[in-house]
Every structure is written in C-alpha cells, then in structure tokens.
Amino acid sequence: MLRLISATPSPYARKVRIALAEKSIPFELVTEVPWNSTTQTPKHNPLEKLPVLIFEDGTSAYESRYILEVIEAKWPEPALVPTDTWERLAARKVEVIADGVCDACVLLFWERHRSPEQQSQEWIARQRRKVDGGLRALAEIAGDREWVVGDRFGLADIATGTVLRYLDVRFPEHPWRSQYPNLVALSARLEARPSFAGSVPVPQVISDKVV
Ligand SMILES: N[C@@H](CCC(=O)N[C@@H](CS(=O)(=O)O)C(=O)NCC(=O)O)C(=O)O
C-alpha cells in the first residue's frame, strides 16, 4: 500500500493528500510530528522533512512539489496541471508563491518559539513581509475567476487553498480575510471539496525542544 508520512498542520502534506484524493488513489496516511525524536521521517528523507510518499517497493519521494510531479506522472488522470506549457508554468508559479508564504509562516512560528529576548524583530518583520507580499500576489493572480489558473480545478487551486487555511493554524491574526474577499470566496469553494474537507489542518503537540 502506498504510504504518506504527514503531519496534521502541514500545508505541504495537505497538497499531496488533496492530490491523491482528487485522483482517487488509495494510500495509508501516517501522521506524525517531524519535530519529535520519535519521527520516522529521516528514515525516508535525508532532509528530515515530511511529506514523504513511500511506494510499495520502499522507495520514497519527498519535497511536496516533487511528490506532486511524481503523482501526476504515475497517475495522470484526472490531470491537476494544465496541458498547455505556459498555463502549467503559471500554475507552478502559483505553487512557488504559496509554498513561499508557508515557508515564511514556518520561520515565523519557530522564531516566536524562542524566548522573547532571543527573538529577532527584524527577522519577524522580514517573514511577515513575505507573507503579505505572497498573499497580495495570489489575490492579484486569482482575481474573481472560478479557478486560480486556467478553466478548471488544479494545482494552483490546491496550493492557494492550502496556504490560506494554513494561516488559520499558524498565523490566525493575519487580516487576509478582510484584505482579499476574492480569496475568501475561493477558499470557501475549495474547502467544500471532499478532498479538502477530509484534510483540514489542525495544530499538533510538539513535545521536544526544537529551537
Ligand atoms: N519544502 C518542503 C517543506 C516541508 C516542511 O517544511 N515540512 C515540515 C513539517 S510542516 O511544517 O509541513 O508541518 C517538516 O517536516 N519539518 C521538519 C524539519 O524541517 O526538520 C515541502 O514542500 O515538502
């Protein structure tokens, strides 16, 4: 059985969970805390990050963007990336922006885990700028169209939907809902899909000291 190492808050893992669900690919969800010493992730990814997709032969794929490319190659229908080269590249650019906002949220989250005197306000401000800039770009790209890129649901919607809901977990005070009504409407449409409803992110308990 195909296995996916995931974590309950992970937006990167949620992209993969949604893609597998949208393609009706059966898999075992292995939920863990990659920040605890009990994690199995390093056995399958030398970079020690989840998500990790583990195939029946024991080989693994890691880095969500790469995992999604592998899934698209192995199970092409229904397609989640446009066939047109430039539309496909537009969708991948949306994923770059969305992942970049998630990356900034992760850095912000850990900076805030440091003792107040250790926290760098400059570093926090820098990450917040990346979140604000990325959301602004996503709002401009999405506009008021039904789908973020092209004329059907796909990768760009998965990436955008997952980062928006991830903010509720890691950056709940961010005012994106008042800033971007178009993203609020898009998020509501996407979260109504069974693949999204079945993978809503929630915080996890981290027992080890990480920073
Ligand atoms: N670029 C990676 C990021 C993955 C990532 O940062 N995963 C986190 C967990 S979560 O933030 O997504 O919940 C992790 O495993 N971190 C462990 C580590 O960085 O050592 C991807 O897209 O897969």
From TrEMBL:
Gene3D superfamilies: 1.20.1050.10, Glutaredoxin (3.40.30.10). PROSITE patterns: GST_CTER, GST_NTER. Residues 84-211 form the GST C-terminal domain. Transmembrane segments: none annotated. Residues 1-79 form the GST N-terminal domain. InterPro entries: Glutathione-S-Trfase_C-like (IPR010987), Glutathione-S-Trfase_C_sf (IPR036282), Glutathione_S-Trfase (IPR040079), Glutathione_S-Trfase_N (IPR004045), GST_Omega/HSP26 (IPR050983), Thioredoxin-like_sf (IPR036249). GO terms for cellular component: cytoplasm. Coiled coil: none annotated. This is Glutathione S-transferase N-terminal domain-containing protein.
